[in-house]
Amino acid sequence: MSAINDIVFDCRHAASLARFWAAVLDGYQVAPYDEEELARLASRGITDTEDDPNVLVEGPPGAIKLWFQTVPEAKVVKNRLHLDLSCADFEAEHRRLLALGAVDAAGPPVPSLVVMQDPEGNELCLLRQ
Question: What is the pTM of this model?
Answer without folding.
Answer: 0.92
